[in-house]
């Protein structure tokens, strides 16, 4: 058997690595290992090579060495000290356990000799062509909780670091959390509390807690290793033994990309994005390419909507067969339109788009809205690539193709073939799907939700979510952004744009496809998790994005978040007229990560003074259903007046004594009175009763109370969303404003 140059061989061995005096990474040592692997045509490093990379980044590994025969293995074991573990060293065997290439708990020279021979036989039987470099002899780590730390290359977000409980069941239980690599120390520390089994690391049944500082160091360093070297596709440290006094990686596996990674080239700076989106959303003139006099045609509907929507700028129909369209002079091409044009809306067949887009480029039109279908969504990838190349050549930003258009109500732009909508407000809504776009439109209309924009993204040949976020972050009319997406072209660009936006306004995302199987990468436990929805979930949370579980929640969060004031603390009080709803509201609070306030004795006594004897104070405060409006008002005033109460959940029960609209009017009046005094707290309400509660809920919503009939879950869900944003934006103690 030959030895592998550049690794410990024969009687050489290394001691346990510490982290306290780490001077910094030895990048040249890593480059040398990677060069040798590439020169040999390998994409998987051997265990000794992996250990060298770990050591170069200050990651502790057990004392070990590589033996070329059984005698060397026995000698190494004697010098390291029993018990030991033996592992095959082969560039062709990734999962050593599956190949029979691991033996643990060896306590004598005879056991080591027998294990060496058994491992070699097993691996040769498993894969007769496998190159066997030797057998690794490693001190057995006797203490600590097994965890896994790794890095994988996600198809959307690139390098992400993973953390979870270790062992072979990581792929089964998937109790794993993720962060973008390289990971900041605060984010690394938060990963320890992000898994379901976090209590195991804190110590259970008398066990000592794991060394959190050492684990945090390890996560940071492995993420830096992968980020520093683009050639690295995946890193597996599994198991890592997390002990009370350190963290040791017992097994290190590293995979390289089989081809150089491809990075999306950003063609536009943030300033370019803002300028282009500004002209898109606030145009002075538009052209409709394919405008038509014939009702039922898309070009007719788009032009009609722009005209009827009251757009104050110039609207130019383009149709080579018509002298005028809807009473406006028509031009045979955009080239013949006098003056500048900010946006060209294309409503022509897909094959005709390239030539017309070139004309727009020569006219120096900066934005093209491609309503036209028949591109990548139908398999016409070459045609979509062609229009993308034309747009890049002429500096045109493409919205679409395959979209319903867009609305910019503050500027009277209704560039769509769908029904018009002009209710101005603070919610910006985007969707990849036309069907979802219509649902967004219908919801906005039915709830009278004021919007700053509704935008279809379709195939996202060019303009995508990070372009729009860059604009909405600075748009004075936008107070909340809600996005339906099926994928992200550039996950890191989206995260950067979302983080910048979240500092000032909430971003809510409905990610479709959350139950997809995801990509599978052979040879790596962490690689097997690439593309998994859990990566989206963790990274979106890292960015401060609020993830909606469904379409209804996306739209309700978008509607409610601008209405609710930002809370100043975590104390949530429930006041209800029915004990049953109080229990359900309390359950919902826990489900959404909110905290039921522990009511101080003086506040409890104050509530008891006007609650009937068969009611209850504490939290929830149950004033009972038979009480008159005065009792509701007294409870509301007491909760709003006390600075220790930071948010209020109302559970209303429809009675003849306090009818729904009476409750709504008194609640709105009291909340407005305190608002005028400078006391603003988020107030949400659950309304149980007959159909009259629907009008009462709408009345309250229009006046700053997020009220919902027939549900205890939804009002608490929107309150929880507000709290999640407030923490992400750094508006609450312990929040994270990055």
Topology of helices and strands:
Elements: H1 27-39, H2 47-56, E1 64-67, H3 70-80, E2 84-89, E3 102-106, H4 109-126, E4 134-139, E5 145-154, E6 158-165, H5 170-173, E7 176-180, H6 185-191, H7 198-202, H8 212-228, E8 232-243, E9 246-249, E10 252-256, H9 270-281, E11 285-289, H10 298-308, E12 314-318, E13 324-325, E14 328-329, E15 343-346, H11 353-362, E16 367-370, H12 381-394, E17 397-399, E18 405-408, E19 413-416, E20 424-431, H13 434-447, E21 451-456, H14 465-472, E22 480-485, H15 491-502, E23 507-511, H16 533-542, E24 546-547, H17 551-560, E25 571-576, H18 579-591, E26 595-596, H19 601-608, E27 621-622, H20 629-641, E28 647-653, H21 660-676, E29 683-688, H22 692-701, E30 706-709, H23 713-728
Parallel strand pairs: 11-12, 11-15, 15-16, 16-17, 20-21, 20-22, 22-23, 23-24, 25-26, 25-27, 25-28, 28-29, 29-30
Antiparallel strand pairs: 1-4, 2-3, 2-4, 5-6, 5-8, 6-7, 8-9, 8-10, 13-14, 18-19, 18-21
Helix pairs in contact: 1-2, 3-4, 9-14, 11-12, 14-15, 17-23, 18-23, 20-21, 21-22
